[in-house]
Each structure stands twice: as C-alpha cells, then as structure tokens.
Design goal:
Number of domains: 2
CATH class of the largest domain: Alpha Beta
Radius of gyration: 25 Å
CATH topology of the largest domain: Rossmann fold
Largest sheet: 4 strands, parallel
Helix content: 40-55%
Strand content: 5-15%
Shape: elongated
Strand order of the largest sheet: 1-4-3-2
Number of helices: 13
Distance between the termini: 87 Å
Number of strands: 7
Structural class: alpha/beta
Length: about 375
C-alpha cells in the first residue's frame, strides 16, 4: 500500500513502529474472515500509549485500500473513538450515526476525504450520499434514523445508534467491521451515560463484529491469565464492569415485584455451589438472614422471572434452575450481593436497633 494513501493518519513512523506485525495481521485477517462469517468481536486491551490505536489505524488503512471497494462482499471498515466527555445522548447518537454514514460512503467511493468533519455539512450529507453510491435497503435505514435523531423522535437514541451498523449489515447480508477506540470512556465517573447494555446486542452479529480497544487499570503487562483475572477482579469490585453489570441487573430487578426479596433470591442463588440451584435452600437462607418466611412457590416464580433476564438458567423440560454460563456475571453477583444486600441489611438493622434503644424526641407544634 502506498504510504501516502490513508483513510486515517497514523502518528508513529513505520521505521520505529516495530514488533506489532503479529497484531496487525491478526486483526486484518479477522476482519477479512468476517466476510465468511468466521470472525467474532474482540478486545485489544493494554496500557495507555502502548500503540493500540496505531494498530487499528494501520489495519483500517489496509482494509480501505487493499480491497476491491466495488465488490459487494468487501469488508467495510468503520472507525469511531469515544470522546472523554459524553453528556448528551442525542448529540452522541447523531455523531455516531453521522460517522458511520461517512465511513461507509467513503469506503464505497474510495474517497477518504469524506470522513473529514468539514468535508460536508450534516444537512447536506443524505443528498450527497444518495447521488454518489447505491443506497441499499439496509443502508437506507441510516438516513431515516439520522432524521429521527435530529427531530429527537424516540426514547433511547443511543440504543438505536449503536445497533445501526449491525442493522445495516444484517439486512443487506454484507460485512461491516466496527473499530471502536477508547471504550473505557463509556463509563467515566463524572458522566451519567450508559450504553454498554445496548452495545451487547450490537456486537453479537456475525455480519458486524466490533473490534475494541481499552486501557487497563493496572500498571502491569498483560502477560498471563492471572494478571487478566486480577484486572477483572478489580473491575468487578468497583470499576467499569461492576457499574455496567449493576445497571443491567438493577434495571431487570426493578421490573419485578418485591424488590428486596428479589435481590436476596438472586444473591443467594449465586452462592449455590451445586450444579442445580436449590429453591428450598434459598427459602431457608431467607428465613435465617431476613427473618422472612417466603413461600416456596413465590421463590420459584421470582427465579423464573430472573431467568427471563438471563440472570439464572431455568431448564424448563427438567424443571430445575442452574447458573448461567458466564463466570464474570457469577463473580459480579457475589460481589454485588455482599456489598449491596448483606452489608446494607446489616447497616439498616443496626440503625433500627439504635432507634429502638433511644428516646425519640420530637419538636414543633403541640
């Protein structure tokens, strides 16, 4: 590939960018394999300033110029970097969709200038695209979505935005690879912005794998499974993973009746050491821990509802419950329950006990 040809400018000269060929070839080949539905979404995790973004840029440039862009089976590369300040879901969604449309069009025209922010105004973008490339049934949805976002028509704009690439590739049976940079910016402590739950469905399409970079939380090289498990353990305790999983779990629990009992049942189910989760054990534990004599039928009913949210498994033909095949979720539920259920219940009990032992004094009008 000509050095002067690039869809996205690299920062590090090739002469000093060494020892990365293995990663470059891996992501390039995985992107091409997506056209045969033989690739899955992947994460490139490492410390800051280790060259993760440079790897993505070089892979994208190869995909952009080394394929036949007129071939409908070509893999369309799309690059997006999450900003470190996301406060408005509508503006984020518009930017995400606009970026997708520009990258898709730029590849189909082999014109990287289109990607530049100042190349064309947002209002002129639909007419420009429609007059230059074939608008497929799937890709036409992008323009309808963009119009709806500009009019603020919808409930969860960020959900529609992140699922757009998959919607296009699934409808057209084409291949799109999303390169998402700085994924950790999705959950900064100063911003109340959550889209990882919506992203989960988007990344599971074989027509549209997502390649993601993220920065580790520890100043350690990721050289073995033990180090990776340590990073996950920290995140499960108080980091990005914990907050995202908590949001999803609480959102599902809030749909069910008897919020407190449901949380206890989910936590006690996570503590089950046997292959099958025993509702009678949960019933006994509830009586000991909460002093609640909950009917077995109610516990089973709650567990079935929890299984509908993929928080536990319900084997209907066998009539029993088991853990979902997700070790990260299982570890999270144990950590979450210990912190937010057991500890909180203990604190509330102590407060109530102190009130019972204290003289209640009131003031105001008699």
């Amino acid at each position: 590939m000509n050095k002067n040809q690039f869809a996205i400018k690299t920062l590090v000269p090739d002469e000093i960018y060494t020892d990365r060929k293995e990663f470059l070839d891996l992501f390039y080949n995985e992107a091409l394999k997506a056209a045969m539905r033989r690739s899955i979404s992947m994460v490139l995790l490492g410390q800051r300033r280790m060259g993760k973004t440079e790897i993505f840029k070089r892979v994208i440039n190869r995909l952009f110029f080394e394929q036949n862009y007129e071939d409908p089976k070509a893999v369309v590369p799309v690059y997006y970097i999450f900003p470190d300040s996301i406060t408005d879901p509508w503006q984020f969604s518009i930017n995400y969709v606009e970026n997708f449309i520009k990258w898709y069009t730029a590849f189909r025209m082999r014109n990287p200038d289109i990607i530049e922010k100042k190349f064309i105004k947002l209002n002129d973008l639909p007419d420009f695209v429609k007059s230059n490339i074939e608008i497929t049934r799937g890709f036409s949805y992008a323009f309808r979505l963009l119009e709806a976002l500009e009019e603020k028509d919808g409930v969860y704009p960020e959900e529609a935005a992140v699922q757009l690439p998959r919607s296009v590739s699934d409808r057209d049976d084409t291949t799109i690879v999303m390169f998402l940079d700085e994924i950790q910016n999705l959950h900064l402590p100063q911003h109340n912005f959550r889209i990882v739950g919506y992203m989960q469905d988007a990344v599971e399409s074989p027509t549209c794998p997502h390649f993601v970079t993220g920065s580790a939380k520890l100043n350690e090289p990721l050289i073995n499974e033990e180090t990776i498990n340590k990073i996950l353990a920290i995140d499960l305790s108080f980091g990005f993973i914990y907050q995202e999983l908590r949001d999803q779990v609480i959102k599902w629990i809030d749909r069910l009746n008897d919020h407190n009992i449901t949380k206890w049942i989910l936590y006690l189910a996570a503590l089950e050491e046997e292959e099958k989760i025993n509702p009678e054990r949960i019933q006994n534990e509830l009586k000991v821990r909460e002093g609640s004599n909950v009917e077995l039928k109610k516990i089973i009913d709650v567990m079935i509802k929890l299984s509908q949210g993929d928080l536990i498994d319900y084997i209907s033909f066998g009539g029993y419950f088991s853990h979902v095949n997700d070790p990260v979720l299982q570890d999270f539920l144990k950590a979450w329950g210990k912190v937010e259920i057991v500890l909180l219940s203990s604190i509330i009990f102590k407060i109530m006990k102190s009130f019972m032992c204290s003289k209640i004094v009131s003031f105001g009008r008699k």
